[in-house]
Amino acid sequence: MDIITKSSPRVVLASGSPRRLELMQRLGFEPLVYKSDIEEIPRAGESPEAYTLRLAREKGEAVADALADTPELPGWVLSADTIVTLDGDVLEKPGDEADACAMLARLSGTRHEVITAYCWTWRAPGQPVEARISKAVAVRADVWMRELSEENIRRYVASGEPMDKAGSYGIQDLGSTFVRRIEGSYFCVVGLPVCEVVETLEELGGLKGFPL
Ligand SMILES: Cc1cn([C@H]2C[C@H](O)[C@@H](COP(=O)(O)OP(=O)(O)OP(=O)(O)O)O2)c(=O)[nH]c1=O
């Protein structure tokens, strides 16, 4: 059932992340969800921030292009990408449990950085791809993680929680017991910095008609 009426503005969420959907729903948006299948591979010499910005943009543009000229658009497409960085290395979602254990052992007792880039994309029906509008923004937060024992890591990985999360932890659930302090946006760490996301939509003139 399509719960969005023809007269209401639409947001398409180009993300398979249940956290991002829940955050948008909590704000009163009722996004249509389409997951992109963009490959997440850093390019040689690409900074962590440039990498997240590129992925956020590519995810949104892929979905906007796929939906162009379908009844799902026009509408603003929101996409995002979250990474953890430590000593210049990018930590993404773990490949398997051993990878998750290794990431958590590395993050134990550190101050590290989380970067979430998001992108708003607009593609009007019948318009060529060059007429597409997109704006990508990166938001950063520092996270201080307490020292983790091997037992902490083993039990946490056995819970399954780390497996779909950048850096192998989720600050919003069991992983909260590992985080002593953060500086910056909490929602950047969770994967969608809602203050900036809504601010950008407002700047783009796309907020009219939404509940905010
Ligand atoms: C650090 C951290 C990450 N995460 C999540 C947010 C993202 O969903 C995920 C990082 O992976 P992403 O590649 O950013 O997103 P995704 O694969 O979940 O979804 P999509 O690419 O379709 O948009 O890690 C948390 O939920 N909590 C945390 O504390």
Structure description:
This protein has 212 residues and is of the alpha/beta class. It has one domain: Maf protein (Alpha-Beta Complex), CATH 3.90.950. Helices cover 30% and strands 24% of the residues. The chain is built from six helices and seven strands, in the order E-H-E-H-E-E-H-E-E-H-E-H-H. The chain has helices at 18-26, 48-67, 97-107, 150-158, 186-190, 194-203, and strands at 11-13, 32-33, 76-86, 89-91, 111-122, 133-145, 179-184. Strands 1, 2, 3, 4, 5, 6 and 7 form a seven-stranded mixed β-sheet that branches. Helix 3 crosses helix 4 (150-158). It is elongated and about 55 Å long. The two termini are 24 Å apart. Bound molecules: thymidine-5'-triphosphate. Thymidine-5'-triphosphate binds at residues 15-17, 19, 35, 59, 80-82, 84, 93, 114, 164-167, 169-172, 175, 189-191. The record marks 19, 82, 172 as: Important for substrate specificity. Its cofactor is a divalent metal cation. InterPro entries: ITPase-like_fam, Maf-like. It is an enzyme of class 3 (hydrolase). It is found in: Cytoplasm.
- Please outline the major beta sheet: 7 strands, mixed
CATH fold title: Maf protein
The CATH class, by name, is Alpha Beta
Total beta strands: 7
Radius of gyration: 18 Å
> Structurally, how many domains make up the residues?
1
Compute the average pLDDT. Answer: 92
- Per the principal axes of the C-alpha atoms, what is the gross shape? elongated
- The appropriate CATH architecture is Alpha-Beta Complex
Unreliable segments of 5+ consecutive residues: 1-8
Quaternary assembly: single chain
Helix content: 25-40%
**Structural class category:** alpha/beta
Q: Determine the strand fraction and express it as a percent band.
A: 15-25%
The number of helical runs is 6
Intertermini distance: 24 Å
Bound molecules: thymidine-5'-triphosphate
List the helices and strands in order: EHEHEEHEEHEHH
